[in-house]
Structure formats: C-alpha cells, structure tokens
Amino acid sequence: MSESSQPAAPASKYCRESRVFKTGRVFPNDINNHQTLFGGKLMSNIDEVASISAMRHCRCSVVTASTDSVDFLSPIRPTDSFCFESFVSWTGRTSIEVFVKVIAENLYSGERTVAATSFLTFVAIGPDGKPAPVPDVIPQTDEEKLVSDLAEERSELRKVRRAASKKLASQLITTKYWE
C-alpha cells in the first residue's frame, strides 16, 4: 500500500477515554522473602492494565512493543492494597505509549504513596495483521499534561534503545551452550 493510500488516522481522543483503574490486595502467596509484593506480579498487572488502556484508545488489537520503564519507588507490603491507574499518554502513527501509576495504600492507616510508575509502548494491529493508524491523544488534566510533556523525547530514546538492542541481538550466539 502506498503512503498516499494508507488509511487516515482516526479522530483524536482524550487521555481520560483510555483511563483504567484496578485495585488489588497483597496476599501471602504474592510476597517475596523481603515481605513485599513480588516485582513480577506487579509488572504483570502493569502490562494488563496498560494493554486495556491501549485497546480502549484504538479499539483494535494491540501488541506490547516494549516495557520502556518500571520504576519501583517504594515497597508494597502485606498490609497494603495497590491501585493501578493507566492512560494513553502519547501516540505515534501506529504506536501507543501508556503511563501506569501504582498507588499503595496502607489498609490500617489509610496512608497512600506512589509505589511505582511505568511507561509501556504498544502497536495497534489491524484486521489484516499489520500495524494500524491510531488516534492522536489530547491531555487535559495537569497530571496528563505533565506525563505527556516529555513523550516525544521518550519516543526518540525508545528508537535509540531499540536500535542498540537489535545490534546487540545480532551479535549474540544462539548455539546451545553444551555443544
């Protein structure tokens, strides 16, 4: 398909249209030897809510292209609940950046803290299995604007990091170590 015959991107959407909330509680099988929530469990939930935000934004299938960052800022303990809040913070032609904020709440004291933040990138996939155009995103709240302000810079860093990852991968061996 030539550049001029590609489908037009859908109309713009507000960040709030992709917002997702999920609250959970820490149970004994969720904790590590430090008596805090397993990082992998947190990351799995982050990917889940982020993918829902991405699909709400583009209303088609998406694939996770990268987990750009997960910053663990404070531990989540067995006395805490954790709330994930995600929304689309930036879009490219077919890519969607999603911001996820994780808030821990001590269920006894009510104290709340931002326990983690994360940025993930998804690619929209059309019915033909190829990347599909996505709507632009419009931030409205102060927090949405704060998160969106550096999105172009993060996008450029992703491109550099991906190129470096591809270069490294091309130099890695794939033979079985026992051969």
TrEMBL record:
Residues annotated as signal peptide: none
Gene Ontology biological process: acyl-CoA metabolic process; fatty acid catabolic process
Pfam families from the UniProt entry: 4HBT
InterPro entries: Cytosol_ACT, HOTDOG_ACOT, HotDog_dom_sf, Thioestr_dom
Record key words, sorted: Hydrolase
A GO-annotated cellular component: cytosol
Domain HotDog ACOT-type positions: 16-128
A molecular-function term among this protein's GO annotations: long-chain fatty acyl-CoA hydrolase activity
Record SUPFAM superfamilies: Thioesterase/thiol ester dehydrase-isomerase
Superkingdom of origin organism: Bacteria
Family: Belongs to the acyl coenzyme A hydrolase family.
Protein name in UniProt: Acyl-CoA thioester hydrolase
Organism of origin: Paenibacillus durus (Paenibacillus azotofixans)
